[in-house]
Write a structure and sequence with these properties.
alpha+beta; two-stranded antiparallel ribbon; 10 strands; globular; Thioredoxin-like protein AAED1, chloroplastic; PXL2A/B/C; Thioredoxin-like_sf
Length: 262
């Protein structure tokens, strides 16, 4: 039963030019490893990784150490990235979305606004928003596409416009080093997890329309991720390995609830 639904929702795509792929592979998050294969924190990677280096050995990386140089932290760098409000269509910087000293924020990067799995994730975030609010945590949902595409999702799902943002050029995705490509999108083994949530997916897409898909079809090859910040400090990061491979929401809530909010 699942296969016909999935197949009918996959838009035709054309691969982006090689220069775009190269740019995506030379910037983003670098995992800092400790003995025993554990990961302590993330730092901003400013140059290409040498051949043979694992750019992301683990998709889920809780961060327990602050960057010794705040000006080079991923939170500082992300603060200067411009995205667009779905509500107004106006540009806004990440650093203006929450208190950069002590404020808590969950930044959920969806794939694109025409992705059925992202409609499912958005519905889960919407239904969990009250728990974020009670913990004093700002929810920020970002998707690939233009504000008008974001509004299609918001109106038909529905999803609150004031927490939804558009990143048509995938600037935040590039900075955070999120996965991109045909294999990750359609053929990664992690993507089969979505079929265990088929009922949830079916409910989320009952008002779905492919019209929310970005006009730039290269955007459908982008994967998402989930990040938790306290001020500029990155507390939790998880890259989606494949389509529908979303961060466990219990993990995100545990991070939010364990950290005191000023």
């Amino acid at each position: 039963m699942a296969a016909p639904v999935a197949a009918s929702l996959v838009p035709r795509v054309s691969l982006p030019p090689p220069a775009r792929l190269a740019a995506s592979s030379t910037r983003g998050l670098d995992l800092v490893s400790l003995p025993g294969g554990r990961y302590r924190h993330l730092r901003l990677r400013r140059s290409p990784l040498p051949a043979g280096t694992a750019a992301a050995s683990s998709p889920s990386v809780p961060s327990s150490a602050s960057d010794p140089d705040p000006e080079s932290s991923i939170g500082h760098a992300l603060g200067g990235v411009e995205i667009y409000s779905a509500a107004t269509g106006e540009p806004v910087l990440f650093r203006d979305l929450w208190d950069q000293n002590e404020g808590m924020a969950v930044v959920a990067l969806l794939r694109h606004f025409g992705c059925p799995c992202c409609w499912e994730l958005a519905s889960v975030l919407r239904d969990t928003k009250e728990r974020f609010d009670s913990a004093g945590v700002k929810l920020i949902a970002v998707g690939v596409g233009t504000p008008d595409k974001a509004r299609i999702l918001a109106e038909r799902l529905p999803f609150p416009l004031e927490y939804l943002y558009a990143d048509p050029e995938r600037k935040a995705y590039d900075l955070l080093g999120l996965y991109f490509g045909l294999g990750r999108t359609f053929f990664n083994p992690a993507s089969v997890k979505v079929f265990s949530r088929f009922d949830s997916l079916k409910e989320a897409v009952k008002n779905y329309t492919i019209e929310a898909t970005p006009d730039d079809r290269a955007g459908v090859l982008q994967q998402g991720g989930m990040f938790v910040f306290k001020g500029k400090e990155l507390l939790y990061a998880r890259k989606d390995e494949g389509t529908g491979d979303h961060a466990p929401l219990d993990d995100v809530l545990n991070i939010c609830c364990k950290v005191p909010v000023s």
